[in-house]
């Protein structure tokens, strides 16, 4: 139910952006006086002190400055974007990840802080190829990500116990089918179990269907079916096209694919999975693996950790709050703009 409520909030924010209280000007009619240059109808950012902005609600990035332009993506509240320029109607051209688009100024809190704007915050996965997407991890630490479903609850618990003991933070992407299956078989919710151990849990659709043949609306319905309710999702098969991007945007999720694939689903070989993870990972990588393969064991993760360490790389740590201090605690359902890896 919490997911439905969150979705409703997102939808409310989308359908009623211009509804100003009576007596007030519509929110985007006048630029805030703090940065309005009186004699300029249009000015470049260089003329202002503002470098970035943080979204104050769920807001769309569009291909042009107006609600009649197509949506590129949907940003959740608290996302930092880099400001490029503003037009006379109060719309800002921004960049986020590798994307550039326009946003309504009334949904932006302007800041003089520079946007780090790490590559790949909002990524377009292009199939199985490694595509540079490091998701919301902007640190130099490597995130091991595991998709689909574990074979048994004891496999899952063994990994959780190990990563908790070693202060490792994985990203787990179970399908809706998987969550339901484990609820039936064992009476547990895998997402809840993982979050309680400081692990990140993202959506992987309901039934793992390739979403590309579906319309945006039909794919969005797929994403709203059973499954993990959050603001990040990994498209089944990493398959993304314009319609899939549209579906994720309308379901209120950012896409997170990977930049390093171990191809573990093809070979199901533990040693090969480990060696590919270790040799291909770079600073800040997201490594793709699957929970049903032999790469999802405490020993495989231990070997990957050791191998990376020899290359001067560290794994993302379990969640201990945004300041990364204190004991491991439950991760939030909605991932922050930047994971405290
Ligand atoms: Zn998958």
TrEMBL record:
Record's keyword annotation contains Hydrolase: yes
PROSITE patterns named among the record's database cross-references: SH3B
Domain (SH3b): residue spans on this chain: 46-112
Organism: Arthrobacter ginkgonis
Keywords on record: Hydrolase, Metal-binding, Signal
Protein name per UniProt: SH3b domain-containing protein
One Pfam family named in its UniProt record: SH3_3
Cleavable signal peptide: 1-18
SUPFAM superfamilies assigned: Glycoside hydrolase/deacetylase, SH3-domain
